[in-house]
UniProtKB/TrEMBL annotation:
GTP binds at residues 244-251, 269-273, 290-293, 356-359, 407-409. This is GTPase HflX. Residues 1-20 are annotated as: Disordered. Belongs to the TRAFAC class OBG-HflX-like GTPase superfamily. HflX GTPase family. GTPase that associates with the 50S ribosomal subunit and may have a role during protein synthesis or ribosome biogenesis. One of its GO terms (cellular component) is cytoplasm. It comes from Hymenobacter cyanobacteriorum. The keyword Coiled coil applies. InterPro entries: G_HFLX_dom (IPR030394), GTP-bd (IPR006073), GTP-bd_M (IPR032305), GTPase_HflX (IPR016496), GTPase_HflX_N (IPR025121), GTPase_HflX_N_sf (IPR042108), P-loop_NTPase (IPR027417), Small_GTP-bd (IPR005225). The gene is hflX. Mg(2+) binds at residues 251, 271. It is found in: Cytoplasm.
Length: 443
């Protein structure tokens, strides 16, 4: 594994930006864990370590900050490294030069050098100049949120389409960052057997990257035409898409509803490729698609390049919005999903809210039966966790729509979900195809 050691860079591949080496070769490459020359990915022999850094606004609660850092740690773990330390600095906004202030930067540097940490991970996107300054100062791999998410997507993407989509997003991320990343290294290098790239080489690389972006866009258009034709062929059937925050249990639900074998794992972005299965409820067949999960601060370039995967959502007749009720931030996650649906032009779709993982849900009084009485919550800055019955009533009143509480894993209340889903599908079917019988005969 090409790990950049603390305090010094390995000659060779680390003189370029972390994404560049695999990128210029022209395939969606891993960034944190480097691909071997033969194109296979090494399993980490020695785990990479990461320091997490966040600059929350002053008004953000302590609990919220911890939640966000927990999520970042989870992302890092999913990418194959371990978070060993967290640095938080409350600022009105991040420092324009180095994201954190001077004092905090010195603190981080001291820690990284002492511990030999392999990378520093930032819970936001860094500007090209911040990235350059931080690399020059900390002398280890600098990873921002987009780079990290792109890396996980590169790890997960399996189909030709999703691999092309990830690769496109990686190049788009890389392009504006090519310049700075080279120049500061030039200054540091000082000629000890490390002949650095000059401006001409940067220009050449930029051109290669631009060409590659154009090529990938074309390739995606072709792939898109094919999948559009495929989707059109399914024209006479109601389409339902599972949507939701990452790791809420969409694939698990797909497996139990669609009797499919979809990869589900307690890691973020287990699913990057959309999968579709035919399901029959109330004698009405429909197509159920499992889709990629959303996350806060999802890189916009990634959303754009994932257009054809997201078409699965845009073209659906009904969305099954899965929520992990046991997550302390589930309400914000609902909001992130709704906002992202808005961004991709799928905000006004009929939706059924499915609250999953009720087996893991603990109301504030853990002794209490989850469907029991309301109790006062302790004020520790986190939202109170009322009993499920109360939550259900609140959401049903708010949405004027039934909501279902299930455990996909424990198979709890799935009949209720099937009944509700079946009714919606039959209604949509009659609406869409008024002259068509809703039986297998029509298929
Ligand atoms: N306790 C509990 N765990 C569940 C339940 N449903 C799913 N899980 C677990 O949650 C984790 C994530 O499940 P997935 O089905 O992969 O979630 P996903 O929404 O498809 O995630 P991404 O594809 O990463 O967006 C897995 O470890 C599942 O076993 C549930 O009802 N209860
Ligand atoms: Mg999944």
């Amino acid at each position: 594994m090409a790990t950049t050691q603390s305090g010094g860079r390995k000659p060779g591949n680390s003189t370029r930006h972390v994404g560049a080496v695999d990128g210029v070769k022209g395939r969606a490459g891993r960034i944190l864990l480097k691909a071997a020359d033969n194109g296979t990915y090494e399993t980490a022999k020695e785990q990479e370590t990461a320091v997490l850094v966040s600059v929350p606004p002053r008004r953000q609660s302590e609990a919220q900050t911890t939640e966000y850092l927990d999520e970042l740690a989870f992302l890092i773990e999913t990418a194959g490294a371990t978070a060993t330390k967290r640095f938080v600095q409350r600022l009105e906004k991040p420092d324009i030069r180095t994201y954190v202030g001077e004092g905090k930067l010195a603190e981080i540097k001291a820690y990284v050098q002492h511990e030999g940490t392999s990378m520093v991970v930032f819970d936001d996107d860094l500007s090209p100049s911040q990235l350059r300054n931080l690399e020059a100062e900390l002398l280890v791999k600098i990873v921002d949120r987009s780079l990290l998410i792109l890396d996980i997507f590169a790890l997960r993407a399996k189909s030709a389409t999703s691999r092309t989509q990830v690769e496109l997003a990686q190049y788009q991320y890389l392009l504006p960052r090519l310049t700075g990343l080279w120049t500061h290294l030039d200054k540091q290098r000082g000629g000890v057997g490390m002949k650095g790239p000059g401006e001409t080489e940067i220009e050449t690389d930029r051109r290669i990257v631009r060409d590659r972006i154009a090529f990938l866009k074309e390739k995606l258009e072709d792939l898109d035409k094919q999948s559009h034709t495929q989707r059109k062929a399914r024209g006479g059937t109601i389409r339902v898409a599972l949507v939701g925050y990452t790791n809420v249990g969409k694939s698990t639900l797909m497996n139990v509803l669609g009797k499919a074998e979809v990869f589900a794992e307690n890691k973020l972005f287990a699913t990057v490729d959309a999968t579709t299965r035919k399901v029959v409820l109330d004698n009405t067949p429909f197509l159920l698609s499992d889709t990629v999960g959303f996350i806060r601060k999802l890189p916009t370039k990634l959303i754009e390049s994932f257009k054809s995967t997201l078409d699965e959502i845009r073209e659906a007749d009904l969305l099954l919005h899965v929520v992990d009720i046991s997550h302390p931030n589930f309400e914000e996650q609902i909001q992130v999903v709704n906002d992202t649906l808005g961004d991709i032009g799928a905000a006004d779709k009929p939706m059924l809210l499915v609250f999953n993982k009720i087996d893991q849900y603990k109301p504030d009084d853990a002794e209490q039966d989850p469907f029991g009485e309301v109790l006062d919550a302790e004020d520790d800055g986190t939202a109170p966790r009322p009993p499920l019955a109360q939550l259900q009533a609140t959401y049903m009143a708010k949405l004027h729509d039934p909501v279902v509480f299930v455990s996909a894993q424990e198979r709890t209340n799935l009949d209720e979900l099937r009944e509700l889903l079946g009714k919606r599908v039959v209604a949509l079917h009659h609406q869409r195809f008024p002259y068509q019988a809703n039986t297998w005969a029509s298929e």
